[in-house]
Specification:
By secondary structure, this protein is α/β, with parallel strands linked by helices. It has nine helices and 16 strands.
């Protein structure tokens, strides 16, 4: 082989094949290097906007049940962990009263310290209206256009009150609920209580009606309701298992005066709603006196008053009658009102009735057919009421 032939053989004869092999080797090297391009450097990929977020944390009494409030803490930490860019947060705790714990800030460490050291439960009921209004007000000064509210609560029904009928959340604010009602608590509670009274032959009878409500598995267990008056247990009632139950007690007071009472249930994890406290006043029947004849004759109006007021055991008043002319101050001492409708009061009786009225008694005068105008005029003049 001549030197010219050797040189000709060393020249590249297939340029296209050579280029393909080089590209293949380059791609293999690139693949093993695992290169990447940050998303923010890709012009056609949209980025998440910075957010202003208010975290509403329910710290009402019901949040003490089980580990519910610790779940709320974890939910707050989880939201803070999602922070990116210049996201800003504010933490508000609420029950019946609302308190802003942190301002809108991007200082995540500040918010985490508040969650660990300040956020705590209380003994108040729940009100959702005030915290939502405050959150909307806080977000009105937000730096970012994307505004968001996160409600972390067990969503007690009593917290949604009538004020919501006249208020709507700003439609530009997004809303999220972290529902901590995953498992309803086992709770038996006094839902309603009512007192009524009735007269009987035994005296004044008070009736105490109680309605019980329940959540969770408390509905599947029997319940005991106890009645105590002035600190002493006077009655108890066993109720079968049911979601809603009613109990009634009757009580005849041994004396007149004011009494303090309580209906209560055995304690459970939420004892605050297991009792109702009340007071009631026991008074005797007011005594009325009719002066005049109570015979059933025309013109003897006292007879008809006697029939109207004396209703047996159901009577509201004690009504007695006495002939005109001999009533004394001692007889009027416990009388609430005196009726004169017939007969003619004597001079000494007029003086007695005047002293009775001046002492605070009530005198009701009506003129029957047998009344003497002159006698009644003297009575009215003595009372400084004019004359007939």
């Amino acid at each position: 082989m001549t030197p010219k032939e050797v040189v000709r053989q060393r020249r590249i004869q297939h340029w296209l094949l050579m280029a393909l092999r080089c590209c293949l080797l380059g791609l293999l090297a690139l693949a093993f290097a695992r290169p990447f391009v940050p998303a923010e450097n890709i012009p056609f990929v949209s980025q998440r906007e910075n957010r202003s977020v208010v975290l509403l944390v329910d710290n009402s009494y019901s949040m003490q049940y089980d580990n519910r409030f610790e779940e709320a803490r974890r939910a707050v930490r989880g939201k803070l962990a999602e922070a990116a860019g210049e996201d800003e947060f504010s933490i508000i705790q609420f029950a019946a009263q609302t308190q802003q714990l942190t301002p809108l800030s991007s200082d995540i460490v500040l918010h985490e310290n508040v969650v660990d050291n300040v956020l705590a439960t209380g003994y108040q009921t729940t009100d959702f209206y005030q915290p939502l209004r405050l959150a909307e007000e806080v977000l009105s000064e937000a730096r970012h256009q994307m505004r968001h509210i996160v409600l972390i609560s067990d969503l007690q029904l009593g917290g949604w009150k009538g004020a919501f009928e006249n208020w709507k959340l700003d439609p530009d604010i997004s809303f999220e609920v972290v529902d901590l009602r995953a498992q309803a608590p086992s709770n038996l509670y006094v839902e309603d209580f009512n007192i009524s009274e009735k007269r009987s032959a035994a005296g004044l009878i008070h009736r105490f009606d109680t309605r019980l409500g329940s959540t969770g598995d408390a509905a599947s267990s029997p319940a005991t309701v106890e009645l105590a008056i002035d600190g002493a247990e006077v009655d108890a009632s066993e109720l079968p298992a049911a979601a809603s139950r009613r109990s009634s007690f009757q009580y005849s007071a041994p004396r007149e005066g004011v009494f303090q009472g309580q209906v209560s249930l055995p304690g459970d994890a939420l004892p605050a709603d297991d009792s109702r406290y009340f007071t009631f006043n026991v008074e005797g029947r007011p005594s009325l006196l009719g002066l005049g004849s109570n015979r059933r004759n025309a013109g003897h109006a006292v007879y008809y008053l006697d029939r109207a007021f004396n209703q047996g055991d159901q009577a509201i008043y004690n009504f007695n009658t006495q002939a005109s002319g001999n009533v004394t101050r001692a007889q009027l001492r416990d009388i609430s009102a005196v009726f004169i409708s017939s007969g003619n009061p004597l001079e000494r009786e007029i003086n007695t009735l005047k002293a009775y009225v001046e002492g605070g008694g009530s005198l009701i005068v009506s003129f029957g057919e047998q009344a003497t105008v002159a006698a009644f005029s003297r009575l009215l003049q003595a009372l400084e009421l004019g004359s007939v």
